[in-house]
Amino acid sequence: MADLSKRLREPLVLTILVIAIAGWLAFLAMWINSTGQSDQLRSEVATLTAERDAAQQNLAEREQTAGALEEAQAQLESVQGQLADAEARLEATSTDLEARSGELDTVTQSLAAQQDEVAALEARAETANASVEELATRQAALQSEIQSSNRQLNDVGARLEEARRQEQTATANVAQLAEEAAEATASLADTQSQLQTAREELTAAQEQRAELAQEIEAAGADVQSLQQQVNALTDRRDVLVSDVQGYEEQLATLQPQVEQLTQTLAERSSELEEIEARIAAESAVSSATTPSASRSFEVMTEGEASGLHLILNEDGTFEMRDRTGSVVGGDYSLEGGALVLSNPTGHIGEAIFPMTCPVREDDAGLEIDEAAGCMIGGLRFEQGE
């Protein structure tokens, strides 16, 4: 019962007002049947009901517009977050691209230096080859001289000593040339080894340059992709900003209408109060001749449920109202020691319907016993006059 009482006090003022109007309209319809002014009152009630429905519809449109505005603002914030993330990724990629470009410049400079070194080694190799060829030519000439000397030695004995001296000289020259040729050969081998090493370094540098070029190309593709994403997000942000502006303009247009409808609803509420006063006055006059068509019960004990009213109508409908004016209505049946409430209208909170409550009835009122699912169990309703 405590949960039901709390739920009955939770609705907004507008919801309470609409439910109260509905209850009074039902009460008004019941009493109109026993008065002589039923046609006029029905016309006024129909007019007020139509105006109430129009006000509720306009209020619903306002709430829908406000919800769409909040959703658009949330989408705008999400797109702005994605745009900031994409810009951060673009900045990081640009920084990495600049670093890669610096590495490429360094490798290019190193490659150029190695190419210059290779060119110098090749020039040295060409010089060494020329020296070897020159020494080989001199060796051939000396061999020719040796052969000539040998022929002269065989032919002329007198020239033997001179030929021997020439031979010794030639042998010494040949030994010297052989030594110079060996040194040139060793220098050439060393130069060729250095040339091979330089070529390998050149190949490695070229491969590294190709890899850096591929990485730069991939980074450029990533930058282009990120730029496209940034452009798309920017376009989407502009669209959302335009939608938000449209919603704000629509809200600014609807706000005066809602205020006017609220004022109209207040005026109609005042008119309803006047009609209720008239009905109360007429009911006081006709109460002496018209028997009561319903039974009214009230919780008289102290507590949260104090002042809770329960009205059981002869047409099988019920109405329950708490101290705040919150109303729950529907159908009921009272037989076999059980009160069954069904087809509820109004704010029912966490209550489950149909609701079956064991009941003991006496001349003074109703005693509701505790039962599963019965939100009013344990209460004593005293019957009113």
Overall geometry? rod-shaped
- In the CATH hierarchy, what is the class of the largest domain? Mainly Alpha
- Indicate the proportion of strand residues: 5-15%
The value of Rg in angstroms is 56 Å
Mean pLDDT: 77
The total count of strands amounts to 8
Largest sheet: 8 strands, antiparallel, barrel
- Give the structural class: alpha+beta
Give the second-level CATH assignment, the architecture of the largest domain.
Orthogonal Bundle
How much helix is in the residues?
Answer: over 70%
User: What is the CATH T-level topology of the largest domain?
Assistant: Helix Hairpins
Terminal CA distance reads 24 Å
Strand numbers in spatial order across the main sheet: 1-2-3-4-5-6-7-8
Model regions low in confidence, pLDDT < 50 over at least 5 residues: 285-292
Count of individual helical segments: 4
- When the domains are counted, the total is 2
Spell out the helices and strands N to C. Answer: HHHHEEEEEEEE
